[in-house]
Amino acid sequence: MDCPLVNQMFRQLFATPARGCLRQQQHAQRTFRRTLREQRRHYALRKTDSDGQGGSSWQQRLDHFPRDVSKQLREYPRVTARELKHRSQRPMRVKMTTREFIDDSLYNPNYGYFPKNATIFNLAEPYDFTSIKDGADFQRTVDQSYLDFEDDLDAIRQDDLRQLWHTPTELFRPYYGEAIARWLVTNYKNTLFPYHDLIIYEIGAGNGTLMCNILDHIRETDIEVYHRTKFRIIEISASLADMQNTSLRHSPYFADHLEHIHIINKSIFEWDTLIPEPHFFLALEVIDNFPHDTLRYDPYTERPLQGGVLIDETGALFEYYEPHLDDLVARFLRIRRAASRHQPPHTPISNKFYPPWLRKLRHELPFAPNLTIPEYIPTRLLQFFDILSSYFPHHRLLLSDFTQLPTPVPGLQAPVVQTRYKRQNVTVTTPFVHQGYFDIFFPTDFELMEDIYRAVTGKLTRVVSHGDFLGSWADIEATTFKSGENPLLGTGHGGWYGNVGVMTTA
């Protein structure tokens, strides 16, 4: 694996149940300071008879002379995450596309990362930002809050493999949710009031804190709009759906809110009901965990090959590539080619500083790879836009996510793949890891996303930075440190989430 800590973690995973550890708080504080702000191969052609002419129809990875799995690739069935949904054990003797493997790793109800291993950090009381000295003081305060939160969890049950992460909704509550509420109410009054109700859909709702903060703010500031507000969460995880119902009880208006909310325990990708009314759709820091496909390109013909994962009888993972593109990948490439404002679109073979003759020369060198670096394409995001267009035709979208991420995974738009072990973040260099124990999250190319969204839905959009959006809608005075720094605006030493963008339907 990538480091001794990962090896140690996997020995524990496969050999014994997780055991408690001593709380090394000073070391944990140093680790958190480094990581909290950044939240969520060589190939060889093998001869076979698979193409009828003695040539191979797939590309096997050559990392230190791996085992030849040609026979297994011919014999193992291809499966999807949906087909594995009801399995309680991780699959063996199968193959699947990269997006289906990531989907299964993150969302399988029985062993997936989010249903079984993720814990969202939340505060007993919101921070008093005006009493905090500066950005460094806020960082120390958040570090201590993390330690206290995890100490409380360990007092109930110790877990070396606990996956803990935070969101701006939790860190900046209630001010973050209030900013979203102001945007919603203002746009609702400008376009829909009084002829329609304020209907809000949210996916990736986490603990349900955003829903509570939005409803609290609307009730306190505009009771007329509140009476016409309906909030609907679409939640894939049954445990998170239960948590969202529980979180609602912390609101002082719990009894009133019950009449306005509906939590639907269902994947957005299984949605099949037309919503005819005008409404708003929230997707905040959720598309980074949408599964992607991988492509590599032949450096000579520039032909794309689609990536997949083979899982053998021992559970070992083998990455492979084949020239056949499935329908979703082929459609994504067609839409990107037609809609992208960059022509040709950014790919591993479109770099003007890396011309074809130089690329071919490089691949002629001894031990050179016979395919380009991988490209990760957001095919599940395309399916999400299809669902919005088909079943939510009158939506207005508010979407935010990471524009860039520091990652050791090679490739274009490559993900961060990390887990936590004994309160330390462990980052690895491949997304093909033990299913359910690693968060796999991607940066978003907002220009490309905007182009594809417009092509699929026909709607106009606006893209701004996270700081610019909150600068327009948040209570800046209440969230400013004594030093004058403001963590919501994403700039300066006190700024958080400076690598996040926001896209809204115009």
UniProtKB/TrEMBL annotation:
Annotated catalysed reactions: L-arginyl-[protein] + 2 S-adenosyl-L-methionine = N(omega),N(omega)'-dimethyl-L-arginyl-[protein] + 2 S-adenosyl-L-homocysteine + 2 H(+)
A GO term for molecular function: protein-arginine omega-N symmetric methyltransferase activity
Gene Ontology CC: one annotated term: mitochondrion
Compartment(s): Mitochondrion
Top enzyme class: transferase
One annotated GO biological process: methylation
E.C. designation(s): 2.1.1.320
UniProt keyword list: Methyltransferase, Mitochondrion, Transferase
PANTHER family: PROTEIN ARGININE METHYLTRANSFERASE NDUFAF7 HOMOLOG, MITOCHONDRIAL, PROTEIN ARGININE METHYLTRANSFERASE NDUFAF7, MITOCHONDRIAL
Similarity section: Belongs to the NDUFAF7 family.
Function: Arginine methyltransferase involved in the assembly or stability of mitochondrial NADH:ubiquinone oxidoreductase complex (complex I).
Protein's UniProt name: Protein arginine methyltransferase NDUFAF7
Organism: Knufia fluminis
